[in-house]
TrEMBL record:
GO CC term, one of those recorded: endoplasmic reticulum membrane
Lineage, broadest ranks: Eukaryota, Viridiplantae, Streptophyta, Embryophyta, Tracheophyta
Top-rank lineage group of the source organism: Eukaryota
Transmembrane segments: 6-29, 41-61, 73-94, 106-126, 146-165, 254-276, 288-309, 321-345, 365-383, 395-415
Source organism (scientific name): Abeliophyllum distichum
Location in the cell: Endoplasmic reticulum membrane
Membrane topology: Multi-pass membrane protein
GO biological process: auxin-activated signaling pathway
Similarity section: Belongs to the auxin efflux carrier (TC 2.A.69.2) family.
Keyword Flavoprotein carried by entry: no
Function: Involved in cellular auxin homeostasis by regulating auxin metabolism. Regulates intracellular auxin accumulation at the endoplasmic reticulum and thus auxin availability for nuclear auxin signaling.
Designated name of the protein: Auxin efflux carrier family protein
Coiled coil: none
Pfam families per the UniProt record, alphabetical: Mem_trans
Amino acid sequence: MEILELFVVALMPVLETLFIAIVGLFLAVDRVNILCAAARHHLNDLVFYVFFPALLASGLVNSSTEISILSLWFTPVSILLTFIIGSVLGWILVKVTGAPKQLHGLVIGCCAAGNLGNLPVIIIPATCDEKNNPFGDSSTCSMNGMTYVSLSMSIGAVFVWSYVYNIIRAYGNKDDVGIKVNSTISEQKYDKSSEIFSDSSREALLSKSIPCYEVHEAPVELLRGSSEDRTKVTIFKKINVQVNKLVKIVDLTILLRPPTIATIVGLIIGVVTPIHHVLVGDNAPLRVIANSVSLLGEAAITSMTLIMGANLLRGFKRSKLSIWLIIGITMVRFIILPLCGILVIKAAQSFGMVGSDPLYHFVLLLQYAVPPALAIGTITQLFEVGETECSVIMFWNYVVASIAVTLWSTYYMWILS
């Protein structure tokens, strides 16, 4: 295929996403006020608790029987690499630009977590529907593509709601954690000084009341035993303090959120063949359940895109965010990470880790070229840290994405075709 044809194929899904986002932005304007703050809040709850989990589960449950989910083991590895590389680049960015400490988690999260949800879900089917797409028959392309995208979206949701959630939470509560740790250390120092005082008093008492020959025998053994006990207690206290600090920083209950549960259920149904046959297929006795979940999941794409457009309206607000920080995040997401993605996927191809399907390679490459995950905005709203700054970052990144994602998609299809 010629470059111009590939460019048109890549441009169509991006324009579809941009058009729906513009509709959402228009509905959020004060004069229209259909997607007001309250409406966005309720719609966001529906997406988070119903539509998005249904989309994750249905995508994995309705996976093609010709593709084993276990054979796609490199997908979570690739996503993990995007988070690691992005986190390192984000950490370097906050150090170079001198960003405020409370925004460190936001910047690192934006560099690490890409939009593996609604953008690929729209881009892949729309690309497959184009007559000149390089991935073969439209129906087979769409079915296999949704399998790849659903797994990518599910794993990405787990990473976002575990890693990014906790890193924004940790930096947002950094001062409080520091105060608590310092107070704990002070208490430990006080306890140690009390133990030393009690030991010296015990020795003085023993030297006065016990004969000389007993001081050299029984009390020494007694003191040795108590020293060992105190050492064990001190180690136990240190371990207990470290565990409490870890629990405060990492909220493990977030792993039980609806997207994560839906991912686990979908993977189980997709991997366990007897359950898969009961729920999926024209002759499956419980196919009505899978079909109903699919219908709910179809509402997620449009709803998330409308919310994205409505939230981007906040990006017009003024913020004290440094322009160099915005430029840095944009360069990380649309220049450095896509180049790293090419190196990673090409290396995986040379070692035979990703099979031979070019569509699967395209989905893996797309993971490195998408804008920041929209869930980051929801997380900043939960902790009330950097909400306006997040809107500004999202606005400019999604403006640039309309061009950057199209260009990278064109280049990816060219090197894979």
